[in-house]
Design a protein that fits this description.
The structure holds 2 protein chains of 2 kinds.
Chain A: H1 3-26, E1 30-36, H2 41-55, E2 60-66, H3 68-81, E3 90-94, H4 95-104, H5 123-127, E4 130-131, E5 134-135, E6 137-139, E7 145-150, H6 151-156, H7 169-183, E8 186-191, H8 196-204, H9 222-237, E9 240-243, H10 246-254, E10 258-264, H11 268-272, E11 281-284, E12 303-307, H12 314-325, H13 329-339, H14 366-374, H15 386-401, H16 406-420
Helix pairs in contact in A: 2-12, 7-9, 8-9, 15-16
Chain B: H1 2-42, E1 45-48, E2 51-54, H2 58-64, H3 67-98, H4 106-114, H5 121-131, H6 137-144, H7 158-186, H8 190-198, H9 203-214, H10 216-231, H11 235-240, H12 254-264, H13 269-293
Antiparallel strand pairs in B: 1-2
Helix pairs in contact in B: 1-13, 2-13, 3-7, 3-10, 4-7, 7-10, 10-13, 12-13
Classes of the chains: A alpha/beta, B mainly alpha.
Main location (chain B): membrane
InterPro entries (chain B): ABC_transporter_permease, MetI-like, MetI-like_sf
Pfam family, one (chain B): BPD_transp_1
Chain lengths: ~425, ~300
Amino acid sequence: MNNRTILSRLAAGMFAGASLLASTAAFAGEVTVWCWDPNFNVAIMKEAAARYTAKRPETTFNIVDFAKADVEQKLQTALSSGTTDTLPDIVLIEDYGAQKYLQSFPGAFAALSGKIDYSGFAPYKVELMTVDGTVYGVPFDSGVTGLYYRKDYLEQAGFKPEDMQDLTWDRFIEIGKEVEAKTGKKMLGLDINDAGFIRILMQSAGGWYFDKEGNLSIENNAALKAALETEQKILQAGIHKPAAGWTEWVNTFTSGDVATVTTGVWITGTVKAQADQSGKWGVAPIPKLNVEGAGHASNLGGSSWYVTESSAEKDEAIDFLNEVYAKDIDFYQKILTERGAVGSLLAARTGAAYSEADAFFGGEKVWQNFSDWLAMVPAVNYGVFTNEVDTAVTAHLPSLGEGANVDDVLKQIASQAEGQIQ
Amino acid sequence: MAAGKTGGLKRYHDLNGWLFVAPSVLLISIFLVYPIFRSLYLSFFSGKGMMMKFAGFGNVARLWHDPVFIQALTNTVVFFVVQVPIMILLALMLAAVLNNDRLKFIGFFRTAIFLPCVASLVAYSVLFKSMFSVDGVVNQALMAIGLIGTPIGWLTEPFWAKVLVILAITWRWTGYNMIFYLAALQNIDKSIYEAARIDGVPAWARFVHITVPMLKPVILFTTIISTIGTIQLFDEVYNLTEGKGGPANATLTLSLYIYNLTFRFMPSFGYAATVSYVIVLMVALFSFLQFYAARDRA
C-alpha cells in the first residue's frame, strides 16, 4: 500500500465521518417512541405524531414497534445497565408495572408535575404514576371492561340482549350451559396460564392483591376469593374452551368458537376486525360477583406514556405529549372510532364520537356505555409487585379446575407471593 | 553469561507468547471473568432495581424459603434426570443402526435426524406449540387412530406440559449426539466385530459388550454436555409458555426463573445472581459425579 492510497482512504474515512455528523445534526429533533401492538398503540402514536408534525414540521418521529414483553425487557436492561443512550425519548408502560419502574429506577423518568395539567385526567390513572407527590407520566388508555357476546348464538339458545344485562356470574354459568346444549358452542375462552380474568373479577369488587397501603392482601381478600371461586365453577362446569397463550385465546372468539368475551375495551379493534361477524356482537356490563361492594365495572390493563430523563429531545417530547394527549379532544374521537381506544382524558368524553352508535354492534351506543362504566371502575392500589403475585395466582389456577379447596389455594398463593416479595 | 542469555531468550519467547494470547485473554477477562466475579459480588446485595444494599448471605437464606425456586429446581432436575438418559440411549441406538453399511439411503437418514438441531430454536418452539395445541395436529392424529378419546391439554395440564418440553428437547438434540457416536464408531476396529461374529456373539451382545465400552469416552462427553444444556434450559420453555413457565409453574426452569427475576418482576439482580450460582454449582457437581462414575478403574 503506497502513501497515496493511505491518504485517499483517510480522506474517504474523514468524509464519511463528516457526513455522519451532518446527518445526525439534520435529525436533531427526532423523537423516538417505543410501544407495542401495531393495531392499537403504534397506530395511535402515529396518528398523534402526524398531528404534531402538522403544526411543527421540524420535529420528526421514529415510532418503534416491539412486542410488549420486548419493550419491557429492553427498558429494564437499559435502565439497570445504565446505558441510557439506547433508551427512547418516550416509552409506553403498562399501568400494572408503572410503580415498579418509577421506584426501582429513580431519576430515570422525567417528572412532569407542573408541565401537564393532570386535573383533566381520570384520577386513578394519575395516582398510579405518582411517587411521593410527583407525577411522572402522561395517562393514556383505559382498560374498562365489558362483556362482549354473540347475539346470534345466544338467540339460538333462547336468550335476548335484555337477558344479558345485570347478570351475576352464577347466572352467566347457567346461560353458558344452555348455550352449549343448544348450539354446541362454548361460553368463553379461558387461558389457564393467565390471571387476567381473576384480576377483572377482583377489581370489579374493589379488591386487588394489595390493600390501600400496599400491603399484601391474599388470605382475607373476599374479592379475590370470590374471583377464584367463580373461575373454579367455570372450569368445573366445562363451559370454557381452553387456550394456551394470547394468540390462541384471541382465536377462540375470532374463529367464532365461543359465545362471549369478558375483557378490556381495547379488544374492540380485534373483535371488529372480523368483518363477517358484523351485527352479530353485543356489549353488556360484565356479570357481578356475589360479594359486598361488587359492581359491573372493572379494568384490565391500560397503559401510559413516559418520557426518559436522559432523552436529548426531552422538552420536545413533553411538549408533544402535552399538546396531543392532554389537549386534543378531536384526536381522542378519532382513535376511539378507528381503534376503539377509550382515553383517560375526561374532557374527551364530551366529543361527538362517544355518543355515536356503532353498526358493528347492531347500532348500540357502545362507547357511551363504556365511558359510563369507566366512571364506575373502583380505584385500587396496583402496588409494585403485581407481576409477582400474578405469577403466584397463575401457578395455582390449574389446581382450581381439579377441585382444590379455595381457602387452601389462597394460603398457597399467599406463601408463594410472600417468598417473591422481598 | 550463557545462563543470562538463555534467560533473555526465554523471556523473549514468553513475551511473544503472551502477546499472541493477549487479545483473547483481554476479551475473556472483560466478557467472562469480570461478569463471573461481578455476579458473585452482586449476589451479596438485595433491593429493588438499582436501589441495592448489602445483604450478606440474605439471598442464600431466601432460596430456602422460596417455593418457586424449589419448584424451578425440582423441574430442572426432573428434566435432566428423565430426558438425558432417554436421549443418550436413543442417540446410541440410532447411531448403531445408521452405522450399518447395508442400509439404503443412509445419508438421507443421517441428515434427517441431524437436521432438527440446526433448526432455529424459536421457530421449532413455535411450531411445536401450534402442533400440540388443543386442536392441533398431534391431538387430532392421536384421536383419529383412537389412542385418546379427548384431546390432551399439552400446554394446559402440568404433567403433559413437562412431557411436551421433554419431547421437544429430545427431538432437537438426539441427532446432535448421534453425530458424535457415528464419528466415534468409525474409529472402532472392524476386526473386533469380526472376531466376535466368528465366536458366535449375538448382535445385542456385540452392542452391549463392544460398542458401548468402546464409546465410553464419547458417551461421557455427550452426557456431560447434555446435562449442562438441560440444567441451563431456557429457550424452549420460554417460547412454549410465553415466558411464564406454566401451567402451574410445571415447566419453570432455573434459567427461566432468573430471567423472570431480572426482567419480568421487580428487578432483583442480587437474588437472580444467587440463583445463577446454584446452576454453576449444579453443573460442577454433576460433571464431577459423571467423571467419577465413568473413571477408568483399571
